[in-house]
Amino acid sequence: MSDFARFLPFAPKLTPTGIIDILVVAFLVYQALMVVRGTRAGHILIGISFMVVLYVVAVWTGLEALRSLLSFIVPYLGIAIIVLFQSEIRRALASIGRKGWLSGSLRSTESIHEIVLAVEQLAEQKTGALIVLEGEIGLRTFVESGVPLEARISRDLLLSIFQPGLPLHDGAVIVQKDRIAAAACFLPLTTNPALSRNLGTRHRAAIGITEETDCLALVVSEETGRISIAASGELTSGISGPLLQEHITQHFGVRRAQPELPLIVHPPHAVSTRAEDRPAQRVNQP
Asked: Which parts of 116-241 are beta strand (E)?
């Protein structure tokens, strides 16, 4: 305690400026950890940290052979971080510049419903498809690489675009807000070596575009008819229709004005017969 008391006079005083400085640094460190959490970058960061700690231990303990070996590697860790984390750094910088208070690209549940219906029918027909839903980061560069449409979202239009043999079948459809911006768009392919080699071009393009932006990519396999969804460089396969709609609404923060949307299209006689499904004590009441 006496040693600690002698050290206190030399310790820097905590001022309001120091508090703000500590909070800003803590926020940046937290955001950096959130960017790499749950991705392959997290494991790479652990390996780099282990090498740095090992170098410090070698210096303190006097292990000259180990220190000399690591001295040739540690100076290049900065370049290695930029190369290995280029997609994460790009996504983090883009998230800083975007306007977080704006809503997502899809503004209405009707647009989401039309997309889900089209994806379900494409999956039943085993027709390959790739639909990209724009987030807060613009996809203008990729829209310009395709055929501009600027059409309202509809199930029939999406089904006609992805019909095999038609000019717009290959490539991706990019959706901006409540409109189909373009079709037959070219997307960057992911270079993640950890992915399975069985993934096709559509799945790799879906992962690649989500590594660079905050969009959502929907993929239908023409071999198996399975529905996959890609977000933040991660691919999830075997998605059903209701789960797909839930993923989209959660990703873009769309609020459902009418949760029981299918009840709207029921004819009057179907609504009246719902009383037969109620408990007997309630049906027999006069």
From this structure: 129-133, 147-152, 172-176, 179-185, 216-220, 227-231, 234-237
For residue 176, the enclosing domain spans 109-254
pLDDT tens for each residue of 241-280? 888 888 888 888 765 544 444 434 444 444 333 433 444 3
Tell me how far apart the alpha carbons of residues 268 and 278 are, in angstroms, rounded to a whole number: 17
Question: Can you tell me which residue has the tokens 């049906």?
Answer: 283
Nearest-angstrom CA–CA distance, 219 and 176: 17
Evaluate whether residue 104 is within a structural domain.
no
Written as one letter, the residue type at 13 is: K
Tell me whether residue 179 is exposed, middle or buried, using C-beta atoms within 10 angstroms of its C-beta: 0 to 12, 13 to 18, 19 or more. middle
Q: Are residues 127 and 57 in the same domain?
A: no
Q: Which pLDDT score is estimated for 131?
A: 95
Q: 39-60 pLDDT, tens per residue? A: 556 667 777 788 888 888 888 8
CATH of the domain at 228: 3.40.1700.10
**Binning pLDDT at 50, 70 and 90, where does residue 91 land?**
low
